[in-house]
Each structure stands twice: as C-alpha cells, then as structure tokens.
Amino acid sequence: LLQLFRPLDMLGWVYRTIRQGLIDMADMFRLIDTPVEVEDKPGAPALVVRRPVVAFEDVDFGYEADRQILHKLSFEAPAGATVALVGPSGAGKSTIGRLLFRFYDPSGGRILVDGQDISDVTQASLRAHIGIVPQDSVLFNDTLGYNIAYGWPAGGDGASAEQIEAAARDAAVLPLVELLPAGFNTEVGERGLKLSGGEKQRVAIARTLLKDPPILLLDEATSALDSRTEQDILATLKRVSANRTTIAIAHRLSTIADADIINVMDAGRIVESGSHGDLLRRDGLYAEMWNRQQNEESEEREAAE
Ligand code: ATP
Prior knowledge:
globular, alpha/beta, 4-stranded antiparallel β-sheet
C-alpha cells in the first residue's frame, strides 16, 4: 500500500509546488500580461542606490512593433518624493511600472535609477531595490508568517521572528495576528483562514516592509475597498512611503491628491503635471477627472444613505 501512496504523495507535493509558483507569479507579475525575457548584459554590474531618484527620459515603448504605447515619455521622481501617475484606462500607467521593473526594454530613451541606466545593471539588483505593493494581493497557501517573510532576503527565507513581527506591526497586521490562537503560524489561503481584501493588502505591505526597498511602486486596483478600509490602508501606505521614492499608479484621484507631483497621462503621454492644487487651477483633464469623481462619490454616498 505504501508503494501506492508514495507516488501519490509525491504528486501532491509537485502539485502544491507548482501551484505555489503560479500564485507567486500571479502576484509579482500582476503588472504584466506576457513576460518577455529581458537579459542582463554580460558582466553587468549591480545597481548601487545612494539617492533613489527615478527618471524616465524620452521613453518610447510598444508591446508590439506596430503599436506604440508610450511616446517620448519623460518624468522624474526625486529621492523621497511621491509621484502619482493618473489618467484614463489604457493611458499607459501600468506599462511604466512594468518598464521600471524591467519586464520589457524601451525601444527609445532611457530609464535611470540614481543615474544608472537600468538596462546596464543586473535585473536582480534592480528588483531588489523596488518594492511592489499591488492593491489586490494574492497570498500563498501557507502560514501568515511565511507570507510576510517570503522572498526575504532575496533567494532565502531568513527573516527572524522579531523582524517579521516588526514588519507586521508597521503594516498594522499585528492586531489581526493577536486574535489568532496560532498567531503567525495560522494557515491562510484557500484551505486556511480567508483574509479580506484589506487584510491581504496589509500582509503584502508587511512583506514589502521586510524587504525595505528605497523605491516603492504602488499599483492601485480598480476594485474598491470599502471606504473605511481604504482610509486605513492609505494611512499605512503613507507611513510606509515616507522616506522612500514612491511611484503610485492610481485610479481614484482622492488616494493621491497629496502626492508631491501628479503626472496626468493620456494615450501614452504626460499631458499635465503638478500638485493637486496646480492641476485644479489649470482646469484641464485632471480637473475634469477630479470633478467627475467627486460627483460620482457624492452620488454613491447619497445612494448608500
Ligand atoms: P488601466 O487604468 O486600465 O489599468 P493603464 O493606464 O495602466 O490602464 P496599461 O496597462 O499601461 O494602461 O496599457 C496601455 C496600453 O497597452 C493599452 O492600450 C493596453 O491595451 C496595451 N497593453 C497592455 N499590456 C499589453 C500586452 N501585454 N500586450 C499588448 N498590449 C498591451
């Protein structure tokens, strides 16, 4: 009988391993649809970041040769600043995130991190400096602790219990953990504890905090959290992004109104740029989007009352 079970057990293991791998890919590659192999140049050095300045210089890009998506796009994210990318669906916001993570190379122009062209350095060193907080995170079918420590340090799982707890505290996951009898050893995911969208996001924030990257890429999901959860998460993200260079891709303008610089994109170009106040005074695309969203939100509030 054992002989029969051993292969079955093995099969189960293979299944779990592959499944886990897929969840991992889904999370890390949510920004991307079809990964394309980008290769390190022979002998490429590691990225060295002293001042986490991110600059796009005249970047041209298309997923397909006959359809250009970004047109000579330039912007800078100064060290420690929060720079938002907003604009209509399909404008190219997530594409910028994918290029910064170097899932693709631009066909023209350059992307620099602290003055180094990201296509000249190793991808591993580039990605080690950038934390992604997707706003609808996928968790592994494993323990809460594993989900926070996963991938840190790069290639290992060597975070100490104290480090995990500190990250959980900063991401406001600790109150949840303290309610659970098994604490960080609680199984989450399909067969374990089901976490809400907001809780999953907090776990993703804790994972990013443990990685402690100088550059953050926040990718807001289109699906809305309820407004109280959203406010809580925003407050947490604000703490997390302090002292880090943050690029925030947003659909709801209320979430990025206090960004240092807001870049408004339309059809692969930055058409307006400035603070929330500057852009309202300009009375262009941003002001139009802002007024429309304010009206929609007040209608939703009225409908809910
Ligand atoms: P949204 O607000 O809807 O998320 P976005 O501004 O983030 O939109 P992108 O996802 O950057 O827009 O997409 C920009 C354009 O690139 C779109 O027209 C989209 O159809 C196209 N595009 C995105 N991913 C791919 C891909 N893998 N292959 C081909 N075209 C793609």
